[in-house]
Specification:
single chain, Phosphorylase Kinase, domain 1, 2 domains, six-stranded mixed beta sheet, globular, ATP binding, glycoprotein, Ser/Thr_kinase_AS
């Protein structure tokens, strides 16, 4: 009984400290923040959490409708051990920015231990659903090479804006297909800024106490400083992995494949590019479409170089995607550190 009472007392004090931390942030954040809703209003917007859209790393997402009829997605932050930091990260980053390839934050709720983020509703769900269509009742035909290129360009422009277009540089640190949402026209929008890091635009290297992100998309330098410093190039790496998955229709780390038979996705794609083999095996495509897939693959292979200095900036990535295949140099083999070949 004493232990239980002590636990409840400590938990209450801990929750109060987090609440004060969040309120202090909101107070200093300024008047430009999105609309603040009460938890009672959130329940009305979601019709008492009737329509669950999915589960994310920090909580559940529900469909709702604002009083003016605008459809929205509401993320309820649950069971979080981030001391309110993921809520602060989301509001501090996308609360003030507007870009066609970044999901809009329309409001939030912070009431006691309850916290929610309200986004614009993305009707086509996440990119993950279309890349790995074997796991969903979704035709992969929707991701023809031309559309892949459009989506890759949209994501690249969104990341470039985060890195170069804001008052402070924003490192997303969790770029992956699940966090790319699609609107009615299949335009991609970057979402889920719970792990994001703000830094000065002229700050080249940042410090983190622990690796952030999702296995398979985390840049090597987040695991070990031997590979270089953590910077905006870490997002470039994650983008490269995402593009490789989109081109191949395969996960970069697939637990369903036996360890003995597993071929690392970047190496598999590199060999196909080198030998001129077809990359898009799940669709019937024209020679022109194969060229687009090859272009995407080469750009992605540059993005996942082990040494961050050898990866292109997102501005350079956009230029490479808009340019011609003939202008692209073949990068070094993935995951073989190379100091003498920099991004073209």
């Amino acid at each position: 009984m004493v232990a239980t009472a002590l636990y409840l007392s400590l938990k209450t004090r801990y929750n109060e400290e987090i609440h004060l931390k969040v309120e202090m942030f909101l107070k200093t954040y300024g008047t430009s923040k999105p609309t603040r809703y009460t938890f009672s209003e959130i329940k009305k917007i979601t019709r008492r959490f009737k329509d669950k859209l999915g589960q994310g790393g920090f909580g559940s997402v529900y469909k709702g409708e604002l009083p003016n009829g605008v459809p929205v997605a509401i993320k309820m932050l649950e069971n979080s051990n981030g001391e309110g930091q993921e809520f602060i990260n989301e509001v501090a980053t996308i609360g003030r920015i507007h870009h066609t390839n970044i999901v809009r934050l329309l409001g939030f709720c912070s009431e006691g231990t309850r916290r929610a983020i309200i986004y614009e509703f993305m009707p086509k769900d996440s990119l993950e659903k279309y890349i790995f269509s074997g796991n969903y009742i979704v035709p992969r035909e929707l991701l023809a090479p031309e559309k892949m290129l459009d989506i890759a360009l949209g994501i690249a422009r969104g990341i470039e804006y985060l890195h170069q277009g804001c008052n402070q540089r924003i490192l997303h640190l969790d770029i992956k297909p699940h966090n790319i949402l699609l609107d009615y026209s299949f335009n991609p929008k970057i979402s889920d800024f719970g792990l994001a890091k703000l830094c000065a635009r002229d700050q080249s290297i940042i410090t983190l106490t622990a690796a952030r992100g999702t296995m398979g998309y985390i840049a090597p330098e987040l695991y070990s400083r031997n590979f270089g410093g953590i910077s905006y190039k870490s997002d470039v790496y994650s983008f490269g992995m995402l593009v490789l998955e989109m081109v191949s229709g395969r996960r970069n780390s697939d637990p369903s494949i036996g360890i003995q038979n597993q071929v690392y996705l970047p190496e598999w794609i590199y060999e196909k590019v080198m030998t001129g083999e077809e990359l898009v095996l799940t669709l019937e495509v024209t020679p022109e479409e194969q060229e687009k897939a090859r272009q995407l693959a080469i750009v992605a292979l540059w993005c996942i170089q082990w040494n961050p200095r050898n990866r292109p900036s997102m501005t350079k990535v956009i230029n490479m995607l808009l340019g011609s295949l003939q202008d692209l140099q073949m990068p070094p083999k993935p995951f073989v550190p190379s100091d003498n070949r920099r991004a073209p």
